[in-house]
């Protein structure tokens, strides 16, 4: 199952980009054998609209366009459902086993997601109760993709 991570905002910090690339490469290798990946990352510029709701609506429209017809859309949101790493791996496995070709994860801008993204998402996902900078949230999510692949393939990376 192909993964798309569509995010409003670009990683500006070289160190964050290096970490994302590291886990993306690891996912490509580990996920190949279990049908998970590759990961495509789409970065969108923040909206320049003056009003918050207009910014959120513009970003929502562009996020949805970026993921196209992905049959599964998961929006990262502070009010979403939190998963353990094992449960997240099972979620991805469930979609893979059902023959889902693409699963898209959407990270909104600083103001959060517009209504259209939240209404069209099959799930809202929280990475935890703490607020994370967008770059760090992206790193955590990509690492969890890799961790899920290691869990599903029986690799010793994930220890409990």
Compact description:
The chain is α/β, with parallel strands linked by helices and 160 residues long.
How many helices? The count is 5
Gross morphology is globular
> Can you tell me the CATH superfamily?
SPOUT methyltransferase, trefoil knot domain
Q: Looking at CATH, which topology would you report?
A: Alpha/beta knot
Total domains:
1
SSE series = EHEHEHEHEH
- How confident is the prediction overall: mean pLDDT? 96
Q: Largest beta sheet, briefly? A: 5 strands, parallel
Output the strand order for the largest sheet: 2-1-4-3-5
Tell me which CATH architecture applies here.
3-Layer(aba) Sandwich
Percent strand: 15-25%
Structural class of the secondary elements?
alpha/beta
CATH top level assignment = Alpha Beta
Distance between the termini: 26 Å
Tell me the total number of β-strands: 5
| Oligomeric grouping of the chains | single chain
Describe this protein's structure.
The structure is a single chain. This protein has a 5-stranded parallel sheet. It has 5 helices and 5 strands, in the order E-H-E-H-E-H-E-H-E-H. The chain has one domain: Alpha/beta knot (3-Layer(aba) Sandwich). Helix 3 (85-97) links the parallel strand 3 (72-82) and strand 4. The protein has helices spanning 14-32, 52-67, 85-97, 115-120, 134-153, and strands spanning 2-8, 39-44, 72-82, 102-107, 123-126. It is an alpha/beta fold and 160 residues long. It is 46% helix and 21% strand. Helix 1 (14-32) packs parallel to helix 5 and helix 3 crosses helix 5 (134-153).
